[in-house]
Amino acid sequence: MSEQPILLRGGRVVDPEQKLDAVLDVLLAEGRVARVGEGIEAPEGTRVVDCAGLAVLPGLIDVHVHLREPGGERKETIASGARAAAAGGFTAVCAMPNTDPVIDSPATVGFVAAAGREAEAARVYPVGALSLGQKGEQLTEIGELVQAGAVAITDDGNPVMDSGLMRRALEYTRAFNIPVADHPEDVGLSQGGAMNEGLVSARLGIRGKPNASEDVHIVRELLLAELTGGHIHLQHVSTRHGVDAIRRAKDRGIRVTAEATPHHLLLTDEAVDGYRTDAKMNPPLRSAEDRAAVVAGLLDGTLDTLATDHAPHHYDEKEQAFEDAPFGIVGLETAVGLMLTHFVHDGKLELATLVERMSRAPARAFALPGGDLVEGGVADVTILDLEAAWEVDPSRFLSRSRNTPFTGWNLTGRPVRTIVGGRTVWAREEDGGAP
Amino acid sequence: MNRTLSPLGKDLIGLEELSAEQIRSILDTAEPFKEISERRIKKVPVLRGKTIVNLFMEPSTRTRISFEFAEKRLSADTVNIAASGSSVQKGETLVDTARNLEAMRIDMVVIRHGSSGDARFLADRIPSNVINAGDGSHEHPTQALLDMLTIRDHRDSLEGLRVCIVGDILHSRVARSNIFGLLKLGAEVAVCGPMTLMPIGIDALGVRVFRRIEEAIEWADVLNVLRLQLERMKGGYVPSLREYNRYFGVTVPRLEKAPRDILVLHPGPMNRGVEIDSDVADGPHSVILQQVTNGVAIRMAVLYLLAGGAPERAEAAKKGEVA
């Protein structure tokens, strides 16, 4: 991409890779970070963006989103999802393969990658299926998927029940240096469950998914990663025993990375009360004790990556009785505001640590470009106004779907500009910055 | 009668949402309505001109007929909709069904549904009064009310009375409604059954848990015996009906060991020889058929109260006097 150079003038530049947190200028040219420093002179033809009072960060990356295309275009498309990501401050997302058809061939991986490029918003990296049709039987042609652009494999949405298949996936991927992303759930223990199994489910008369259904697979994946030397990436960890097991595995040097989601960090199964389908997702919101463990895991880095598990659903589908509604909530356009308000401004998390969890760690885990503002790297930059107060209003989402439990939450801090490959792909209108 | 003045609010979704006073007022209001079903001409003009839809998305015989008798004996106009043969089977959503009914200007909907929370879902979306006739594993409030009315007929008070619910607590809306209602009226409540059919966290609701039926019988004044759904065998919750009867069945030899005169209820339909033996169901402890009779009175009381009737004016309303 050859674009007009951009000089980001006088923002608070936070880059954990270079241990930077200072007011600096950043010059982007020819799709790369050209320079980071004080008092940079703008070359001729440079667009100067005043970033005084704003935070300038390496582009945020969400390694776990569902963009629904092909097959679920009523909920989201690759283009609408990529724009929603950009509006949420993300410069890149990893699209899960549980679409219709499943992304299990080089052709379908290529389709997702191409549609992502055409969207000209956040980068869209395809994640390929682990097994053909996500049926849990036969490995996909993993090498070919990687060749076509897949950055990981997963059967997210259809947990891998055959431990032997999971072992083979972890072994085989070693040649291609990609992680196996795993939705840890033993469906034998969770079948029929629509929420966390606990006090609230007992009262509401809803079948529950016990913590153990997640814990059993987390522990299995850790053991198999140890056995094979493969890289396991555990998605949306929601249980206290799960967090403990990952912490101990990291201490033992097992190749594991793991996600926390904003909703598991902020909500418990009490949010389901009143049969709220916008609080229905998988894994479910769990107990206060589990929530506290997930928070502790994020703070100490056991859960190294923040991911939204953005899961759009049409309102017709959520407008049903709780047990009949599908699992999942949207997350791309609320994550930054939620994390700034409830973690950074609360003093629980340094801004630099949030950038680590939302940019550097996911980039490294999935071997993606970016994750830092090192000179010569891709010019993917997220600019935030840390102090802007706003209220979550789903009718303003760029996503096609509105299913969020955070409607009406008052938040402080939000994205104002998202730059991908040196080009502004989204900017907040009221700040006068149409892309 | 004005629906906004109902002492129960707009809907009856569950006993968890009601106060002890509201529950007592339903039981007290049912008393004068009992007599209507004993008359030669079983009809009073209490709900004349009201339109009620019985929307049964799950098969039901007893509850549907009981509601229909209650409605007809109060002179309401009623329509029955069953899941099979209706637009529901053609893929219409519950919201659309409800909106279409509402467009025909109805007054009340009695709903039976297989999903927990569906009665509340409907009630939040239409202005008509909604009565929950059983939603999934959540609540079945009129069943618990008729159980309590029947117990009250035989015992002075529910206060301090020990009631044990026996069987599949995990899947039972009858159990949940009874637990919420009985606790509010001051009864002590226990549950007994195989631990596979016991929700985790049930004791947090304030009930005692018995793992053996013998202990439950030794403790209880009243046993409310739940039907064992035959599909539970397939789910692996219970190995066989024979074994269930052997370890959890309510039998005469077990009742003979009870330290006090025990009352036996069953919401029906019964599996004779499984959760309850025939000589118990047909014997002196059983009040099972009286539950069915009381069911009509309870449903009349609920319909009357939701339509805006005052508890103390029930007797006058039966004569057609409008407040």
Please describe what this structure looks like.
- The complex is a heterodimer of chains A (435) and B (323).
- With 435 residues, chain A is α/β, with parallel strands linked by helices.
- In chain A, 29% of the residues lie in helices and 23% in strands.
- Chain A has helices spanning 78-87, 106-119, 142-148, 163-172, 187-190, 199-204, 211-228, 240-251, 262-266, 288-300, 315-318, 335-344, 351-365; strands at 6-15, 20-29, 32-37, 47-50, 55-58, 60-65, 90-95, 123-126, 128-129, 153-154, 180-182, 195-196, 208-209, 232-234, 256-260, 305-306, 381-391, 410-420, 423-427.
- Chain B is built from twelve helices and nine strands.
- In chain B, helix 2 (62-73) links the parallel strand 1 (51-56) and strand 2 (77-82).
- In chain B, helix 2 packs across helix 11 (288-306).
- The mean pLDDT of chain B is 92.
What's the structural blueprint in terms of helices and strands?
The complex is a heterodimer of chains A (435) and B (323).
Chain A: E1 6-15, E2 20-29, E3 32-37, E4 47-50, E5 55-58, E6 60-65, H1 78-87, E7 90-95, H2 106-119, E8 123-126, E9 128-129, H3 142-148, E10 153-154, H4 163-172, E11 180-182, H5 187-190, E12 195-196, H6 199-204, E13 208-209, H7 211-228, E14 232-234, H8 240-251, E15 256-260, H9 262-266, H10 288-300, E16 305-306, H11 315-318, H12 335-344, H13 351-365, E17 381-391, E18 410-420, E19 423-427
Parallel strand pairs in A: 1-4, 1-5, 6-7, 7-8, 9-10, 10-11, 11-14, 12-13, 14-15, 15-16
Antiparallel strand pairs in A: 1-2, 2-3, 5-17, 17-18, 18-19
Helix pairs in contact in A: 1-2, 2-3, 4-7, 7-8, 8-10
Chain B: H1 20-34, E1 51-56, H2 62-73, E2 77-82, H3 94-103, E3 108-113, H4 118-123, E4 129-135, H5 141-154, E5 162-166, H6 173-184, E6 188-192, E7 208-210, H7 213-219, E8 222-225, H8 241-248, H9 252-256, E9 263-265, H10 278-281, H11 288-306, H12 314-318
Helix pairs in contact in B: 1-5, 1-11, 2-11, 5-6, 5-11
